[in-house]
Design brief:
Blueprint (H helix, E strand, L loop, with lengths): L1 H12 L2 E4 L2 H22 L13 H6 L3 H11 L8 H11 L9 E4 L1
Antiparallel strand pairs: 1-2
Length: 109
Amino acid sequence: QQQQQQQQRRQQQGKVTVKYDRKELRKRLVLEEWIVEQLSELYGCQEEEMPEVEIDIDDLLERTSEEERALKLQESLVDCYKPTEEFVSELLTRIRGMRKLSPPQKNVL
């Protein structure tokens, strides 16, 4: 009976717990802020006025080589009239060693 009460209490506390890798999330957030800053400079405007530029970090991390990653970035920046090589090179350096952010783990109690 005590075991049954504990089980009921656990169910009342919530059925799902979500675990995030906070350190990885923080690194990703810092990187994304840096990207927005750099794109603002490259496009010469504020974030709100910036053209739609999609840089998917997880997608980049899935690429097998630096060349593939660089090509993918160049495609995303095709509308930029300023040189992008420095940005691309720096971004590739910054994502080295990062892991893909997998969806949060869900543990049912």
